[in-house]
Amino acid sequence: MEAIDSLVWIGLYVIHAILAFVLLVVLKRKMKALDYGVAVVALCFGLFLPFVAEVAVYAIYRFAERFDRSGLIEDYDEYIDFRVVNYEQIRHDAKTSSSLLPLADAINSKDPAIRKHSILTHVNQSINNQGKYLQMGLNSTDSETVHYAAATMNILIDQYEQELKLAKYEYDLGNPETIHRLATIYKRMIHSELITEVMLKDRREAWLKEILTAKTLYPPSPWIYEDLNEVYITLKRPRDQLEILKEYVHHFPERIEAHLMLIDFYYERERWTEVKAVMFMMQTQFSLDDVPYEHRLLFEEWSDSTSWKNEL
Question: On the CB side of 34, how many CA atoms lie within 13 Å of its CA?
Answer without folding.
Answer: 12
